[in-house]
Design goal:
Blueprint (H helix, E strand, L loop, with lengths): L1 E6 L12 H8 L4 E6 L12 E3 L7 E3 L1 H14 L4 E11 L2 H7 L4 E6 L7 H6 L3 E4 L9 H12 L10 H4 L18 E2 L2 E2 L2 H4 L3 H19 L1 H5 L1
Parallel strand pairs: 1-2, 1-6, 5-6, 5-7
Antiparallel strand pairs: 3-4, 8-9
The structure holds adenine.
The site of adenine has 12 residues, from strand 5.
Length: about 220
């Protein structure tokens, strides 16, 4: 998979993809993230990527030309499955959407800033609009990193133990059960006996019960669904 991220603050994305699971995905040749600085596509003398809003009002709006030039260039090099715009008024991101996107080959993610992008960008280029939650970030970069992380770790071969993504919270619409490691007794706080029993079928049954209990208690809406 290749993910091209378009941003006017590329520095915000210089860290997340160089560590841990995402670095492993890159080293194994399973996923590549390429960050593009929108200013490199600016058409004005001062490399402007934003301008005042028509009709007035506070805040700047990202201009269509630099974005169009960047997207057109990328599209001339390869086909893209989706051109995603990160925005708080997009569709709420969840595990189902992460699963779907993990099956794609090439994605473009456009990060919004200031008051957002000129509506014509959304009308002409964007195929999917994603929000990572009902709150407003300073820009779409951290949201894009969240989506890229959630998607890349699902690509087969990225995680060592492939079953570990399948047992994540939300994969079966349930939260994950509690987990424990050594010591078995921490100042009198003991690991549940069943996990030390060696009885695998009973352990799985316990985990399943715990997942249901947790989901009922913490996410009744999700449980009902
Ligand atoms: N940009 C700003 N806030 C955002 C959010 N909640 N989700 C996605 N992109 C955003």
């Amino acid at each position: 998979m290749r993910i091209d991220i378009i941003t006017c603050v590329p520095e915000l994305l210089s860290g997340p993809f160089d560590h841990s699971i995402l670095k492993r995905a890159k080293d194994k040749g399973l996923a590549e993230v390429v960050v593009h600085n929108l200013r490199d596509y600016a058409t004005t003398k001062y490399k402007a990527v934003d301008d005042y809003a028509y009709g007035g009002g506070a805040g700047m709006v990202m201009m269509i030309e630099p974005i169009a030039r960047c997207i057109d260039k990328l599209k001339s090099e390869r086909d893209y499955d989706e051109v995603i715009y990160m925005t708080p008024d997009g569709k709420n991101f969840n595990q189902k959407e992460a699963n779907k996107l993990s099956l794609k080959k090439n994605l473009i993610i456009l990060c919004g800033h200031y008051k957002g992008v000129d509506q014509r960008v959304r009308d002409l280029f964007i195929t999917k609009e994603i929000s990572i939650g009902d709150f407003v970030l300073s820009g779409g970069e951290l949201a894009a990193a969240v989506v890229a992380d959630a998607v890349i770790r699902l690509i087969p071969g990225v995680l060592n133990d492939e079953t570990s993504a399948l047992s994540d919270s939300f994969q079966d619409d349930l939260l994950a059960p509690p987990v424990y490691t050594r010591p078995a007794d921490y100042n009198g706080h003991k690991v549940p006996d069943i996990l030390l029993s060696g009885h695998q079928a009973k352990i799985e049954e316990w985990r399943s019960e715990q997942a249901i209990k947790r989901t009922k208690e913490r996410r009744p809406g999700l449980f009902k669904e």
